[in-house]
Design goal:
Strand order of the largest sheet of chain B: 1-2
CATH architecture of chain B: Orthogonal Bundle
CATH superfamily of chain B: MetI-like
Structural class of chain A: mainly alpha
Structural class of chain B: mainly alpha
Helix content of chain A: over 70%
Low-confidence stretches of chain B: 293-298
Order of helices and strands of chain A: HHHHHHHHHHHHHH
Distance between the termini of chain A: 23 Å
Oligomer: heterodimer
CATH topology of chain B: MetI-like fold
Shape of chain A: globular
CATH superfamily of the largest domain in chain A: MetI-like
Distance between the termini of chain B: 28 Å
CATH architecture of the largest domain in chain A: Orthogonal Bundle
Largest sheet of chain B: 2 strands, antiparallel
Shape of chain B: globular
Chain lengths: 284, 298
């Protein structure tokens, strides 16, 4: 890395990055322009890049429709909260086991765990659907929530890497003080890996908030639909020739995106720490 | 001491039991079940009928739409992963320069990656609308008559690839983290030996980064082979099946036409395709992925 960068290189770097930021950012302005458009403009599809109309009432209208967006939003919230609780509890417990405890068969189990990351989920999709249907869980959020309480390979792997970096002397000292294995996990390890747990929570949020295929398969009842499915339903027209209410669809898309942005801005610090570890985990 | 070890082993099994149970119920069990279903004909409502390898034989010899979906998926996966890798490497290299404001640029470029696929797909329907869409309006400024994108069999896959490039920031973050992890001493030593910055880039940055590139390639390929939501929302496979991919086709078979056995066979073909790709990338990695011997030991 050359530390004294010359002026032309400096200018070209800034120029390229500014151009790219504008290019990738422009669609956001377009979304806002469509979201604030009147119904007439929407019908004629005469959207402008720079917002010309400011129908802020569209943001209230979306909550007053037959499609219950308040309910969609709450369903998504329930889904992610339980998914996060499940992943944080289960993955940390499993990761502690793999990082610190020894038992026959541990290496084989860990290799199986790693190889499950390579399996496309579609292979298990149909039997899983059959199981949940047999349990009577279709049209509920349960098929989307419950598997999280059994951890997932990616989270376990990352948390294990994190726990391995904690000096074992801490465990030994705690053991001398009479703490058992669960005590060490709960009192020593968990507090030390809090930043990693927050990162896991953010990952789980990110994966579940916008998840579409799962809800599409399991939920036919509008009362149980999460937001991602709700927005898609709003955009799908029942008859050909009918124009979707694009202004409200874009309001819905913004509603779907906003929590992701908020979580990203507040979680960036934790993701940064974890990004470095994720990167170095890949190097190892 | 032995008793101690036994207690430790018992605790190990208790602690990893959530994953083991989940693996048995949600992975291994369903995999065996779907392998069985793939040799049956089943409509979900009556009991499955054993048909031997008929589903696989039909897939490989009769089903021309299936071959089209495989071709479309490869086209999409290879080009989007390849272009995404080049773009994210280029952007990460720029952001890695010791200049002010790089954090802000990184945040700005990452934002599209936070948009859920449902929202970005709906947005791209509008962005790529042939007459009124922003992309073609932009091209018109330069006198270019933009293509009909998702309405044309020739342009629908490039349209999906274009959309995947919008969220290139996700890959940038990992590569940038990898670049920041390279010890400065390497560059200092190279500079003393008279290496210029492009030599440093190709002799230090890229080799040191190759494990991260490798990881991104494997994950990116496996992920894009499973592309679903974009296709379902943007085109539903059209026009003329030009954007029908493997997983949307599997979805149609299973949940539209209730051909559960046939859909399971498709799932297993997808599994082997992913496996072959992973093995090929892993094998080839010996040729181009550089592992520092010191790190390898630990």
């Amino acid at each position: 890395m050359n530390l004294n960068i010359k002026l032309p290189e400096k200018i070209s770097t800034y120029a390229i990055l500014t151009f790219l930021s504008v290019l990738l950012g422009a669609p956001f302005l377009y979304v806002i322009s469509i979201a604030l458009a009147s119904d007439e403009t929407t019908y004629l599809a005469k959207f402008t890049f720079i917002p010309q109309e400011f129908h802020f009432e569209n943001f209230a209208r979306i909550f007053q429709m037959d499609l219950n967006f308040t309910r969609f939003f709450m369903n998504s919230l329930v889904l992610v909260v339980f998914a996060i609780i499940g992943q944080v509890v289960a993955s940390s417990l499993v990761a502690y086991g793999f990082a610190r405890l020894n038992a026959p068969g541990k290496n084989i189990l860990f290799i199986i765990l790693l190889s499950t990351m390579m399996i496309p989920g579609e292979v298990t999709l149909i039997p899983s659907f059959v199981i949940f249907r047999y349990l009577g869980w279709t049209n509920t959020l349960l098929p989307l929530i419950v598997p999280n309480f059994f951890s997932n390979a990616f989270n376990v792997f990352l948390l294990r890497q994190f726990i391995t970096r904690i000096p074992t002397e801490l465990d030994e000292a705690a053991q001398l003080d009479g703490l058992g294995f669960f005590g060490i996990y709960f009192r020593i390890i968990l507090p030390l890996i809090t930043p990693a747990l927050i990162a896991i929570a953010i990952f789980t949020f990110t994966w579940n908030w916008g998840w579409f295929m799962g809800p599409l398969i399991y939920i036919n009842n509008l009362d149980k639909a999460p937001l991602a499915l709700g927005v898609q339903i709003l955009s799908a027209t029942s008859s050909s020739g009918q124009v979707p209410p694009w202004n409200l669809v874009m309001v819905g898309s913004l509603l779907l995106t906003l929590p992701m942005l908020i979580v990203y801005f507040f979680g960036q610090k934790y993701m940064d720490d974890f990004g470095v570890i994720g990167g170095s985990a890949a190097i190892k | 001491m032995n008793k101690m070890k036994k207690r430790e082993a018992i605790w190990f099994y208790i602690m990893v039991s959530p994953w083991v149970i989940g693996f048995l119920i949600f992975t291994l069990g369903p995999m065996i079940a779907s392998l069985y279903l793939s040799v049956t004909s089943w409509d979900l409502f009556t009991s499955p009928k054993f048909v031997g390898l008929k589903n696989y034989i039909d897939l490989f010899t009769k089903d021309r739409i299936f071959w089209k979906t495989v071709g479309n998926t490869f086209y999409y996966a290879f080009i989007s992963v390849f272009l995404g890798m080049i773009a994210s490497l280029a952007i990460a290299s720029l952001l890695n320069k010791p200049l002010k404001g790089m954090r802000t640029y990184r945040t700005l470029l990452y934002i599209p990656a936070t948009v859920p696929v449902v929202a970005s797909s709906l947005l791209f329907i509008k962005l790529l609308a042939p007459d009124t869409g922003l992309v073609n309006q932009f091209l018109a400024l330069f006198g270019i008559d933009g293509p009909p994108w998702i309405l044309s069999p020739d342009w629908v896959k490039p349209a999906l690839i274009l959309m995947s490039l919008w969220s290139v920031g996700g890959g940038v973050t990992l590569l940038l983290a990898g670049m920041k992890g390279i010890p400065v001493e390497f560059y200092e030593a190279a500079a003393i030996d008279g290496a210029n910055s492009s030599q440093q880039y190709f002799r230090i940055t890229l080799p040191m980064l190759s494990p991260v590139i490798f990881f991104n390639l494997v994950m990116g390929l496996i992920g894009s082979l499973q592309v679903f939501t974009e296709v379902y929302i943007l085109t539903n496979g059209g026009p003329n099946n030009a954007s029908k991919m493997i997983v949307p086709y599997l979805f149609d078979n299973a949940f539209r036409w209730y051909k559960m056995g046939y859909a399971s066979a498709i799932a297993w073909v997808l599994f082997f395709i992913s496996l072959i790709f992973t093995v090929v990338v892993f094998r080839s990695s010996k040729l181009w992925v550089y592992y520092e011997s010191e790190i390898k030991k630990s």
